[in-house]
Amino acid sequence: MEFGMKLLDKVSNRLNRAERYGWSIVQKGFGEWVLSKTMPGGGVITDSFKGPVTALESVAQAFAGDATCIIMPRIVTWEFSKNIPVLPIKFSVTAAPDELPAAVKSYAEDFNRDFYAKAALSAPQVNNYGESVLDSLYAATNKAQGEIFQLASALRIPELEEAVGLYLDGAWSRCKVEGDPGYFAEELFFGQDDTGFDHKTLNELVKSDCPADAFSDALYEAFSDAAEDAKESLDEEVIKAMEDELGEEMDDISRKAITDYLRKVFNFYPPYDHYIKAKVPVMVVLDTGDSGSDFTLNDYVEFGKGEAAPIDERASLVWLANSQGYTKEQLEGALALGDMNAPHGFLETCRVEMANAQASRAKPVVLLVSMSVGQMLALCELKLKAKQGGTDLGSITLSKDTEVGLFDFLATGSGGPLEIELEKDITIPVSIIHSAKPDKSYPYSILDVYAAPESIYRETLLDFQVPADMADVLKPLLP
């Protein structure tokens, strides 16, 4: 406000001197005045003066004497010189065009011109007239002062942005984006007890037509308020820092320039890795042809009769036996023997599992795996590819410590003890996975039906082979 105060002081001093000359001024409207003065002997001299129409020009009139006013070094210069009867008043923007933002260039060009004001009085009256006219210009000064400082604020945006950048380089150096100078990024905070999305949200994600995009949308929505709070906090911090550095309060234009610049160079992002790596209990259901018969192909109708009977070769239990090195006939022979105590190995535990899963004919083979949200969503993406006709879907490899059993998740919630013992690690083509969803996304949940702890789902995923044509799509899900 230093320039404005000096301007008002100059107007006030000239007004006081003008009053001593006896001139009176009546303002007819903005920029138009009637002047009168009583002469010795009783005569009255009157004249009219139609002044400039803008407040900036009015203030220029206040500087009718020779003067140069530098509002801001290198950016704005006003030059005034008296030349009666024509008063040329030059206003110029001295900053190089490439230093000004596009919006500021347009604003500056509107004012980068010559102003002319004509003095209509004769030479002997010029001094008196030039002093007393300031009375009418006084009211316009406040408005003009605001215009001047708005322009000055707009024109100093490049320097202000540079100062903000230097501040961020120091105070926020930890957030510099590697390989992208001048840009900053900060991960939003998450609480110690934050274990990721709840089951309801996870269920929505796996049902989506594009699980990866749905995850990102849900994550940004969950942290939208936190992001806004962080932006506002940074805005106030930087604005205060600029006020302290420049020794002046930031006006609206400067504040907006700072916040706009921060939005351009500083990004607050949600904790993607924390949420994509969060563990979730996933029930993996096999389907080697079972689903077409409502998962009844694993139902061994001659169970416990002592004589082996054929089991459908499409049954996922047959595929599981083959993965462990056993034939379909060996599996049938074991199942024919019925229940037993203290089982060991794959075939014996299959006998016990079948014996305790007779409440329903539907006996899907399920594998209980604790995997990351990203791994689960990658499986969902691959299953969507299968629906679109894709055949190369990759595979997952699980360790032999995986909990495996028969469980009717669709109709009854009944099943065996979930104690089929694998003897070898198992590689499962994604093409034979019916579904891989959070436990509680199924009609019947093992955690609920068995009142089991979540630890029954173990981290047994050893490898995830992704088809080459899906590698880029799935990369963000499998960090």
Write the layout of secondary structure elements.
Elements: H1 2-19, E1 24-29, E2 32-38, E3 44-50, H2 55-62, E4 67-72, E5 76-80, E6 86-93, H3 102-111, E7 114-118, H4 123-132, H5 134-155, H6 157-171, E8 184-187, H7 199-207, H8 211-222, H9 224-246, H10 252-265, E9 266-269, H11 272-276, E10 279-286, H12 316-323, H13 328-336, H14 345-355, E11 365-372, H15 373-387, E12 395-398, E13 403-406, E14 426-429, E15 433-438, H16 446-449, E16 461-465, H17 471-474
Parallel strand pairs: 8-9
Antiparallel strand pairs: 1-2, 2-3, 4-5, 5-6, 6-7, 10-11, 10-15, 11-13, 12-14, 12-16
Describe the structure.
It is a single chain. The chain has 17 helices and 16 strands. With 479 residues, the protein is α+β, with helices and mostly antiparallel strands. The two termini are 55 Å apart. It is elongated, with a radius of gyration of 41 Å. 41% of the residues lie in helices and 19% in strands. A hairpin with a 5-residue loop joins strand 2 (32-38) and strand 3 (44-50). Helix 1 crosses helix 4. The chain has helices at 2-19, 55-62, 102-111, 123-132, 134-155, 157-171, 199-207, 211-222, 224-246, 252-265, 272-276, 316-323, 328-336, 345-355, 373-387, 446-449, 471-474; strands spanning 24-29, 32-38, 44-50, 67-72, 76-80, 86-93, 114-118, 184-187, 266-269, 279-286, 365-372, 395-398, 403-406, 426-429, 433-438, 461-465. The strands form 5 sheets. The protein has a 4-stranded antiparallel sheet with strand order 4-5-6-7. It folds into 3 domains: 2-155, no CATH class; 158-188 and 223-276, no CATH class; 279-477, no CATH class.
